[in-house]
Request: fold
Amino acid sequence: VQFVESGGDLVQPGGSLRLSCAASGFTFSNYAITWSRQAPGKEREPVATISSTIGVTNYAASVKGRFAISRDNDNAMSYLQMNSLKPEDTAVYYCGSLGYWGPGTRVTVSS
Reply:
């Protein structure tokens, strides 16, 4: 099982980013996918989850209305669209499932 995140960058407050997650080694369409993040000096926290086939989504209160999680089961990909970014969104973002996580991609929100 492997996950590889990409798309992290330095962005100004109010800006947008789209993170991508490439998964392999398991039947992607059968499992929910979670995006989590870890800010400097803080514990990792879940950000968004999308269920397997139906695509039901759940979000942390801190990102609800600003972030959108999606998935492409045909290509074993998940995405996290992040809008109206705030400095407190600065973190390393991870995607995962089945207890596995990728190495993460760094997002920095700063002017």
About this structure: The two ends are 37 Å apart (CA to CA). The chain has no helices and eleven strands. The mean pLDDT is 97. The first strand starts at residue 2 and ends at 6.
